[in-house]
């Protein structure tokens, strides 16, 4: 069992930056691939980024590639999402998730545990 708690969300102007954190408790997070998803009002939840168990491999949605960076610190059981050059269309609730997959999963059904989410609002 893994518990995930996101933090770092908030209100930022377009072009600004935020760093989200996801703290994992319970079984060590290094046993899981980790991902970030987001859900804007009226939209389905969508994949943002994922990182392998070791942190050696990452995968991004095209909409955030080059602007967002996912990383992890297994010693701290924490995953990060550095978001730069933010746009109003990045406004959403951001969710952290953990997967037992040995790959870098990008589909919701591949993830086993989810956090409660943190709100990110980008003003124009």
Q: Would you kindly provide a written description of the structure presented here, covering whatever features stand out?
A:
The chain has about 120 residues and is mainly beta. Helix content is about 0%, strand content about 50%. Strands 2, 4, 5, 6, 9, 10 and 11 form a seven-stranded mixed sheet that branches. A hairpin with a 4-residue loop joins strand 7 and strand 8. It is globular and about 40 Å long. About 35% of the residues are buried. The model has no long low-confidence stretch (mean pLDDT about 95).
H/E element order: EEEEEEEEEEE
Tell me the β content. over 45%
What oligomeric state best describes the polypeptide chains here? single chain
Helical content, roughly?
under 10%
Strand tally, please? 11
Distance between the termini: 40 Å
Radius of gyration: 13 Å
Which of globular, elongated, flat, extended, rod-shaped describes the shape? Answer: globular
Number of helices: 0
Poorly predicted regions are: none
Mean pLDDT: 95
Structural class: mainly beta
Largest sheet features: 7 strands, mixed
């Amino acid at each position: 069992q893994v518990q995930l708690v996101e933090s770092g969300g908030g209100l930022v102007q377009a072009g600004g930056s935020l760093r989200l954190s996801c703290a994992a408790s319970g079984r060590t997070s290094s046993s899981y691939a980790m991902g970030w998803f987001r859900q804007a009002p009226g939209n389905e939840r969508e994949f943002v980024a994922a990182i392998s168990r070791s942190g050696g491999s990452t995968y991004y949605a095209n909409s955030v590639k080059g602007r967002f960076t996912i990383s992890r610190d297994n010693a701290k059981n924490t995953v990060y999402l550095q978001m730069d050059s933010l746009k109003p269309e990045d406004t959403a609730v951001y969710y952290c998730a953990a997967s037992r997959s040995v790959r870098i999963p990008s589909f919701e059904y591949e993830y086993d545990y989810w956090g409660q989410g943190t709100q990110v609002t980008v003003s124009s």
